[in-house]
Amino acid sequence: MTHVQDHDEAQIETALRIAGAEDYSDRGESGVITVTGLFASTIMREHMPDTESRTQRGLNDQAVRISRGSQLEVWCNGYYIEGRGVRDLIHRSVRNIRRSSDATIKSS
Question: Is the CB of residue 54 less than 8 Å from the CB of residue 44?
Fold first, then answer.
């Protein structure tokens, strides 16, 4: 069962503040957060849909660090993602989690 837990929602809100608006209307805030659990897994699954590839790189069930200094970046177990696609990745992951959570609540 997929359900956004309170700690996941807090991580999501902080990550969205760091990432900035999906439409690029704001740059986002400087900061760092390490996300875990469902949110971290969803980020890596959205970035790398192939389960075997994630397994080979040791990216399953790992914490993900989202940071913004001079640019937005994501780190997971030595795997680094940077650039414009990171914002889209974070927002896509949040939509996926919330969509799954809404479906679970409706079917309960």
Answer: yes
d(CA 49, CA 47): 6
How confident is residue 4, by pLDDT bands cut at 50, 70 and 90? low
Residue 55: pLDDT above 90?
yes
Q: Which residues pair with 72 in a beta bridge?
A: 68
- The dihedrals phi and psi of 22, each to the nearest 5 degrees, come to -65, -30
- List Cα–Cα distances, 12 to 34, 63, 108, in angstroms: 11, 14, 23
Enter the tokens of residue 81. Answer: 């993602």
- Angle at CA of residue 8, ends 45 and 59, nearest 5°: 30
Contact indicator for 63, 32 with CB cutoff of 8 Å = no
Query: If we measure between CA atoms, which residue out of 66, 79, 60, 77 comes closest to residue 35?
Result: 66
Distance CA 88, CA 85 (A): 5
Average pLDDT over residues 22-38: 94
pLDDT at 1: 39
